[in-house]
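Lab notebook page, bench 4
Experiment: in silico fold of construct C2
Operator: M.H.
Input chain length: 106 residues
Purpose: comparison with the prior construct
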Amino acid sequence: MSAPEATPLPLQLFTLKDGLVSSDSGQEAVNNYAADFQGLRHFGLKVGECLELGAPWMGTLQEEDFTLNFAYFDAGTDAQDPGAGAHIGERMPMFELLTRANSLEA
């Protein structure tokens, strides 16, 4: 019995480094991702302050027609620290996203 093939995700990948967002997806995609990322990161900082948890090292935003993620690597969570992000062109629960990503890697 073979595993069902996963359909490719409408995925754009982004790099966070030295306070800048970059991607091979073009400047408009970078600008759009950067705006959503900054809002999500700001919200995470406020929640972290209130709960005395510190800055978030990862976050996910789900809208009706997209899912946006970011994560910092182990160097830290400052705006200058390295990290990565993704914009998926559909609403997708985190578990399903991880399951599909793992099936694509297998």
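Observations: The beta strands are 11-17, 20-22, 58-62, 67-72, 83-88. The first strand starts at residue 11 and ends at 17.
Next step: discuss at group meeting.
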